[in-house]
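Protocol check, entry for the methods section draft. Step 1: assemble the input record (protein sequence plus ligand SMILES). Step 2: submit for complex structure prediction. Step 3: store the structure tokens unaltered in the notebook. Ligand used here: pyridoxal-5'-phosphate. Step 1 record:
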Amino acid sequence: MSNVSGLTCVVCGAAYPPDYEGYVCPDHGNEGILDVVYDYEQVAQTLTKDSLAQNRDSTMWRYRDLMPLSSTDSVPPLTVGGTPMYDAPSLATRLGIARVLVKDEGRQPTASLKDRASAMAVVNARSRGADVVTTASTGNAAAALAGISASVGQKNVIFVPASAPEAKIAQLLAYGSTVALVDGNYGDAFELCMEAAAEYGWYNRNTGYNPYMTEGKKTAGLEILEGLGWEPPGAIFVSVGDGSIIGGVHKAVKDALALGWIDRTPRIFGIQAEGSDYMVQAFESGEDVLTKPPIAADTAADSISADLPRDRIKAMAAVVDTGGQYLRVSDDQILAAIPTVARGSGVFAEPAAAAAYAGLEVAVDEGFISSGESVVVLSTGSGLKDVASVMKAVSAAGTVPMHVAPNLASLKTELANRKEPS
Ligand SMILES: *Cc1c(COP(=O)(O)O)cnc(C)c1O
Ligand SMILES: [Zn+2]
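Step 3, stored output:
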């Protein structure tokens, strides 16, 4: 028994029943993304702030009554969700604002936020009796699907650009997925995966297509709100590629408002790389994202490189409806943010994750955040995902290790000559 009352098309509002097995509104093709609608009165009978406070399950499934699961669905054994959110007073001081919190999604089982969506996908696929699950990905969604699938023995086929960072490809291979390295970019991998899914009848986890991915990702937003005692921060900073995570954070806010758990809306800020700034362009120009053509994305932050953000309708609503902003940051600003966040909070972020903090710096500079505000930075994935970029970042920051002979005299000489890092 689930609390889902139906699905609605984000383009035309057409309603579909809870057991609808399509992915999109057929009248709007791949753009007709569906939003899962809940019977909040029914949710409130079993899920309340108090019941949550007493629930010892700290995984994402603590919110299962607010997710598209039936009571008989069993969840994968890997611990997904319950990631820490740290106060980073030195970052707050640096920025001149009241409070900065960093939520570390690098702590997920496959080291990115994508585990939340892929776990949801695997539950849904299994409840439909799917034989094979597939996705295209810049790397993290794939690693997440591979890992969660491995934990339950679910067959899966993965499409990633051949240029994906090695660590992400290594994860896929270790987990035993069937891996197609596509000679092309994420857009090409996505199109091929969509065709293959249709051809072979595979369960399709693709971002900005499968409506349930938002419902998995929103648990990060619910954790942020619950972690702050349901006192929303002034702003939440989220990096944006396909726009699915930001749509999920928005969904968490809408759910919490509908259930009366919060009484105001945090502004949601979407941060993009300047070489992959489709949403920023549309936000600035007021262009309709339904008709705006793809761009040619190029950024070092591979996880947010998207020619055409697949979840762009929900992604635009997240910022516009909450009074936030879309902002762009350069690759240099993104790389510089990796050591800044690491040194200022202890959280080790991959480029796409550090982009959210880089965006916070821009927002403060441009006067969008006032000095009394508390903000949350969602750090979406671990720095171990892309060590090559981290090495570039520390070298650009002027960080040099000492090279010493294995004796104390050599160490003493080097320490005496060493300039303290700035
Ligand atoms: C996928 C991903 C993003 C962007 O999420 P979208 O839903 O595509 O906007 C950001 N950071 C990391 C680490 C990711 O893996
Ligand atoms: Zn429609």
